[in-house]
Design a protein that fits this description.
This protein is of the alpha/beta class. The protein has helices spanning 3-21, 26-35, 41-44, 57-60, 62-78, 96-105, 109-114, 124-133, 229-245, 291-300, 311-318, 320-329, 333-347, and strands spanning 24-25, 85-90, 115-120, 139-142, 153-158, 167-172, 181-190, 193-205, 224-227, 247-256, 266-269, 272-274, 284-286, 289-290, 304-310, 356-362. The longest helix has 19 residues, at 3-21.
Length: 376
């Protein structure tokens, strides 16, 4: 079935739903566009790489996954070298990160022997890619994090939280005599063209806005605030497991170190911006991650939270410069420039280095983790 047919089916799905029950939330739109069991974006295609719609850090360079593999091995030793240890990746893409991580981890054979790999993946298309990439390893697949067997764990999530559905709220003061209120941003059919969709506001205040983490009333009217319930639940679930069973988690994504307002909802098609409400299911939809809210959710579950730092600083602290130099010393001349370009893309402030953040959470007994020790 072609992408256009999937998109047409989703458009009809939303139109029928809106006619039956009224405007849908941004959360419902994003969830169905990405994860509808028949027509969702991630269910029907491989979106990664130059032939897809976006490129993630593991596809940029092997160095990214290698450094994360060494981070896992180091953290495992800090945990007391449990055997087995669940190595869990959420949203593992094509399996590239895990393959690079395991190859680098062979520097510590005892860690490789202890590792029990678990991938949390809902896309049948991507599962097949992962099976090819990781054909040399024993891998277990799950639909949900909660399905992973108990035990000490190392959890990796790279560009996972940005794809979890958000809710949006619009600040409104209906009259000078009324208190500030927050309306929920919804999606409705366009009354002038029933085949198109448009953003609208809920007719009354949204009680869910009380869960937002920042003092919103100081923002101007029409400000947009965002919240990711699925992300907060997942951070809490991971934090609760690590706090009881041991281990650490590493969340890497683009977003805010501190909560702020702003409309970050965006769509990408063919590596270019695309209107969010056009061709549902045919483009990737993401939003910036609020790392401070994730950290708070994990802490409330009993986990320790380490610093939220920029990706460029984190990778540099793990030894990216040295790894790049080693690769260049062994590479043909025409490959050296590719390694330099990948290094730049991963760390430069105007590329992934500053916008992308790293959050580590762990069992309370774990001290400073690799990459975070000397960051102020």
């Amino acid at each position: 079935m072609s992408a256009d047919i999937h998109s047409q089916a989703l458009a009809k799905h939303f139109a029928d739903l809106i006619r039956a029950t009224g405007p849908v939330t941004v959360e419902r739109w994003m969830a169905d566009c990405l994860g509808h069991p028949e027509h969702g974006y991630y269910i029907t295609r491989d979106p990664f790489g130059t032939d897809g719609d976006f490129i993630t850090a593991p596809e940029v360079s092997q160095m990214f996954g290698e450094l994360l593999g060494l981070w896992c091995a180091q953290t495992w030793m800090q945990m007391g070298s449990p055997n087995p240890v669940r190595l869990i990746e959420l949203g593992p893409g094509r399996g590239t990160l895990m393959a690079d991580a395991m190859r680098a981890a062979k520097a510590l054979p005892a860690f490789v022997d202890a590792v029990d790999i678990h991938l949390v993946e809902t896309s049948p298309v991507l599962r097949e890619k992962q099976k090819e990439t990781l054909s040399g390893y024993q891998v277990n697949w799950h639909d949900n994090f909660e399905d992973v067997p108990p035990g000490p764990a190392l959890v990796l999530a790279n560009e996972l939280f940005d794809a979890l559905p958000i809710r949006q709220f619009i600040k409104s003061q209906i009259s000078d005599k009324e208190d500030v209120t927050w309306l929920e941003r919804l999606i409705d059919l366009d009354p002038e063209d029933g085949s198109k969709f448009r953003f609208v506001a809920s007719p009354g205040p949204s009680p869910a806005a009380s869960l937002l983490s920042i003092d919103l009333d100081y923002n101007p009217d029409d400000s947009i605030a965002e919240m990711c319930p699925a992300g907060l639940r997942l951070a809490h679930t991971i934090g609760a497991r690590l706090a009881v069973q041991g281990g650490a988690g590493l969340f890497i994504d683009y977003g805010y170190g501190q909560s702020q307002t702003g409309d970050s909802l965006q769509a990408l098609l063919g590596h270019a911006p695309h209107p969010v409400l056009e061709q549902p299911g045919n483009a990737d939809i993401t939003a910036h991650v609020d790392f401070s809210m994730l950290a708070r959710s994990a802490m409330e579950a009993g986990a320790s939270v380490h610093k939220i730092i920029e990706q460029g600083l984190f990778l540099t602290a793990l030894g990216l410069d040295q790894r790049a130099a080693m690769l260049k010393s062994q590479a043909p001349t025409d490959v050296v420039s590719e390694i330099d370009a990948a290094h730049q893309r991963l760390t430069a402030p105007d590329q992934m280095g500053t916008l992308f953040k790293v959050l580590a959470i762990s069992h309370p007994d774990l001290d400073a983790l690799a990459g975070f020790e000397d960051i102020t």
